[in-house]
């Protein structure tokens, strides 16, 4: 897309409001995921590519990007894979955004390794690429990473689960994400570290992938309970998987004696902690990730200064049943700050 002649910002804003200035991503055909033009105006275009556009986590991330783009007076272009793991869709979206003249792209990689060549091509054309939430492999494939410390998020709920068990013998099920996704590996490893065990410890009696999906989480938990009915601790990659696990556990009449811990801290998940469905969750802040990412692209557009390295956007353990030696905040705090 050719670059438009520079107009006064007031005229651009008025034109955008009347539809005179419009930006639409095209050529996103089958398999490319959903794509849309967001808010904002002016010469600076910022891209946001999430794993999906249905997961509430990414909905909140998009909200943060939209609000910040509007405040900064820039155009936001958004796209998402059709499903978590849709690397081909993300590649197509990235290529389209680069062709449209974006100054920078914020991306949550569906496949941490497979997306790297496409990112390299974008950066070679002068596009600032910032990973949100999920780092690529290697992390140096992007200019910067704005994300939760996922290892720490897992470690916090591992420490909590260990303390909550109060010395009882643990039989642990881990409901993970999917192979090859760094965020899933980090949370899983962090949980084990926090609990004080390693991958080969006999306390881990079942491990299943869920894709972070509630229905798959339920199926995975059903499989684990069939394998080992005495499971009493469940680690889940996120709260949809946790809610699926709870459904399976409740069907067996075990909901009062199985401890479920998770990561995300969305409003629905935090409410589940308040309701007692989940014992504790590590709350992260996707709206902040996206907002800071948009600001970084704006800075790059203004003065050429590139964001670099890792920016920790924070994590807080949320529970209404605090444990000695484990720092946490209650669900009142969690609901006030869910994904903010």
Automatic annotation (TrEMBL):
The keyword Signal applies. Signal peptide: none annotated. It is found in: Cell envelope. Keywords: Signal. Its main location: other. InterPro entries: Peripla_BP_I, SBP_2_dom. The keyword Signal applies. Residues 46-306 form the Periplasmic binding protein domain. Belongs to the bacterial solute-binding protein 2 family. PANTHER family: D-ALLOSE-BINDING PERIPLASMIC PROTEIN-RELATED. This is Substrate-binding domain-containing protein.
């Amino acid at each position: 897309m050719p670059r438009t002649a520079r107009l006064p910002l007031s005229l651009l804003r008025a034109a955008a409001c009347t539809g005179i200035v419009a930006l639409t991503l095209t050529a996103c055909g089958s398999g490319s995921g959903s794509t849309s033009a967001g808010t904002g105006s002016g010469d600076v275009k910022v891209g946001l590519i999430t794993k999906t556009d249905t997961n509430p986590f990414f909905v909140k991330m998009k909200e943060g990007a939209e609000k910040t783009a509007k405040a900064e007076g820039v155009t936001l272009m958004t796209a998402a894979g059709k499903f978590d793991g849709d690397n081909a869709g993300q590649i197509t979206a990235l290529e389209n955004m680069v062709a449209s003249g974006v100054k920078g792209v914020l991306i949550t990689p569906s496949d941490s390794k497979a997306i790297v060549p496409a990112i390299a091509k974008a950066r070679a054309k002068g596009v600032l690429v910032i990973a949100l939430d999920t780092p690529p492999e290697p992390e140096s494939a992007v200019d910067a990473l704005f994300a939760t410390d996922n290892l720490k998020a897992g470690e916090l709920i591992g420490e909590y689960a260990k303390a909550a068990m109060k010395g009882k013998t643990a039989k642990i099920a881990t409901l993970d994400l999917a192979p090859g996704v760094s965020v899933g590996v980090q949370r899983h490893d962090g949980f084990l570290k926090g609990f004080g065990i390693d991958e080969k410890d006999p306390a881990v009696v079942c491990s299943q992938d869920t894709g972070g999906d509630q229905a798959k989480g339920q199926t995975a938990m059903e499989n684990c309970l069939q394998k080992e009915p005495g499971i009493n601790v469940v680690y889940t990659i996120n709260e949809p998987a946790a809610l699926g696990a709870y459904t399976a556990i409740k069907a067996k009449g075990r909901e009062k004696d199985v401890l479920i811990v998770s990561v995300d801290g969305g409003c629905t998940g935090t409410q589940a902690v308040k309701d007692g469905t989940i014992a504790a969750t590590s709350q992260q802040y996707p709206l902040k990730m996206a907002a800071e990412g948009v600001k970084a692209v704006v800075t790059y557009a203004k003065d050429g200064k590139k964001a670099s390295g890792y920016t920790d956007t924070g994590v807080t353990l949320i529970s209404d049943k605090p444990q000695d030696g484990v720092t946490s905040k209650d669900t009142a705090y969690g609901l006030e700050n869910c994904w903010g």
